[in-house]
Design a protein that fits this description.
Layout lengths: L23 E3 L5 H7 L6 E6 L4 H16 L5 E6 L5 H5 L7 E6 L2 E7 L4 H18 L6 H15 L2 H14 L4 H13 L3 H9 L9 H16 L5 H10 L4 H13 L3 H14 L3 H17 L4 H14 L2
Parallel strand pairs: 1-3, 2-3
Antiparallel strand pairs: 2-4, 4-5
Helix pairs in contact: 2-4, 5-6, 5-7, 6-7, 7-8, 7-9, 8-9, 9-11, 9-13, 10-11, 11-12, 12-13, 12-14, 13-14
């Protein structure tokens, strides 16, 4: 078992700027929370409300797409066809199109109606980039870099390195929720659930209701469930003999999760939902929701699995 030693100086984080890939995408009312609100916590997201019949939309769209791509990942663009997806536009009280809103850190920060010349659009985007830099999100903030590096270590299995770096952060900021939760995640990853539970119980009052602690609490609950799931080969054999043995498939999902095979675990639960979505009082869907809480809302697997689950439930 690793220990939590005196912290050492953090290494410089290798934070590369976001690339230009996928900076422009079409979205829907259903995906708005993920594509815009959650994504805007890391980088400004521009939302272009448009419709195929709208002449000014056809003028605005290509220009703003070109400028967003030129920003090389400093901002993103999400396009929503209001004919197909009117709900979010209605909630934002969009009365005419094109309508453009900019979101950052989960909230709207700027916007305009109607087509604009390229020079004004560039000024609009430059303003968003400066806002992100001023907040530290795009300026290489040392604390954010250290947290990102510690998470990379944790994801790569370097638990001691991650603990060392989280410890350094906690020395500087004893109530840093991300570092506190990260240390608990290291304990969970090492299978030390008792100490993880104890550290969670001893969290400073200022952190008790933080979303980072809520996510790690969900991770601990799932890890405790998975600890008693059973041997993977035996469970796989049962499912192979009877595809409708949902109890064994559920246990298999938990065993796979315990073994670090997250993608395989969620696929087994999705299979249960596909075959019998109401099985055992909707247990498979509820367990997927627990997984989402444990992974965190912006984890790529959470985003991908939510979409798959929505497709199954609303087809």
């Amino acid at each position: 078992m690793f220990s939590i030693p005196p912290a050492k100086a953090p290494k410089p984080a290798a934070g590369a700027p976001a690339g230009a890939a996928d900076v422009v995408k079409d979205s829907t009312d259903r995906d708005f929370m993920v594509d815009v609100i959650e994504a805007s916590r890391n980088v400004p997201v521009i939302v272009d409300f448009w419709a195929p019949w709208c002449g000014p939309c056809k003028q605005l769209g290509p220009v703003i797409e070109k400028l967003v791509r030129a920003a090389k990942g400093a901002v993103r663009l999400v396009k929503i066809d209001t004919d197909q997806h009117p709900m979010i536009a209605s909630q934002l009280r969009v009365q005419s199109i094109p309508a453009v809103y900019a979101f950052f850190q989960g909230r709207p920060v700027d916007g305009f109606m109607g087509a604009k010349p390229e020079s004004e659009l560039k000024t609009f985007i430059d303003k968003l980039v400066k806002l992100a830099k001023a907040s530290g999100a795009a300026a290489g903030d040392p604390l954010e870099e250290a947290l990102a590096q510690a998470k990379e270590m944790l994801d790569a299995g370097d638990l001691q390195g991650a603990v060392d770096l989280y410890g350094e952060i906690l020395q500087a900021e004893p109530e840093n929720a991300a570092a506190y939760a990260g240390t608990i995640r290291c304990l969970i990853a090492a299978g030390d659930l008792e100490n993880a539970k104890a550290m969670l119980a001893q969290a400073p009052a200022a952190l008790a209701k933080d979303k980072e602690l809520a996510n790690v609490r969900a991770s601990l609950e799932v890890a405790e469930q998975a600890a008693n799931a059973g041997p993977i080969p035996e469970l796989m054999e049962r499912v192979a003999h009877n595809a409708d043995d949902h109890e064994s498939r559920f246990d298999l999902a938990m065993a796979l999760f315990a073994a670090g095979k997250r993608e395989a675990a969620v696929e087994e639960l999705l299979t249960i939902v596909r075959r019998d979505r109401a099985w055992n009082d909707d247990s498979a869907r509820k367990q997927l929701v627990k997984f989402f809480e444990a992974f965190g809302p912006t984890d790529p697997l959470t985003v991908q699995t939510r979409r798959k689950l929505s497709t199954i439930l609303f087809r």
